[in-house]
Amino acid sequence: MAKSFNILGNRNNLILAENIRTLYLQGKSYDYICQTLGISKSTINTYRKNAAKEGDDWDTLLLLNRRNTQNIAMSEAYFVGWLIDGFEAQLLHTPELSLHELAKYTKLYFQLKQPRNTDELKSKEQQYENAMRVIKAVAELALEQDNRAVVEFLSAQADVIIKAVFKAQK
Fold first, then answer.
1. Residue of 61, 52, 69, 50 lying closest to 24 (CA atoms)
2. InterPro entries of this UniProt entry (predicted)?
């Protein structure tokens, strides 16, 4: 028997994949995504791994989204304030703690939060920017040539083109 193809099932999988991706890139927790979409954690991991095979690295994109400097500065200020408050509370119970200890913990925090593969991340950022520049240049050329079909295609398929570029790089 030939395997039947259900176009609605495929469409639903595409919608589910996009919803998982969107929530994941927003930094939502696995529990939140599971409850919201009624899926399991393994489903999230399956879609994430499949996307990575196609060149869509959600973890890198999540890291890029989280590197918003204003949010980072606010998080750092909050953390350091919290660390100092906690340190002051500990000083009341353990007078032998020193500012040297506080400095050591603060330094450790900043070492832990540094991205590990900054060269690889910068390379991926550069590849993404280059691919977007090429898409934009082709779209502008198509507009000058009054070729709306090409512009519409590039607009609709930009994500797929970017994924293909990253997949070809692997």
1. 61
2. Phage_D3112_Orf24, Sig_transdc_resp-reg_C-effctor
For residues 150 and 155, what is the distance between their CA atoms, to the nearest angstrom? 8
* Backbone CA torsion sign across 78, 84, 88, 90: positive
Phi, then psi, of 117 in degrees rounded to 5: -105, 65
CB 22 within 8 A of CB 33: no
In a domain, 162, yes or no: yes
**Is 137 within a domain?**
yes
The span from the CA of 157 to the CA of 151, in Å, is 10
Cβ-based neighbours of 83, under 8 Å, separated by 6 or more: 102, 105, 106, 109
Give the other-Cβ count within 10 Å of 56's Cβ. Answer: 19
127 and 141 in a common domain: yes
pLDDT single digits (tens) 93-113? 776 666 677 677 777 767 666
Do 103 and 123 have their domain in common? no
Structural domain total, the chain: 3
Are 14 and 45 in a shared domain? yes
- pTM for the predicted model, two decimal places: 0.40
Q: List the domain range (segments joined by +) for residue 162.
A: 118-169
Please indicate, yes or no, whether residues 125 and 95 belong to a single structural domain of this protein: no
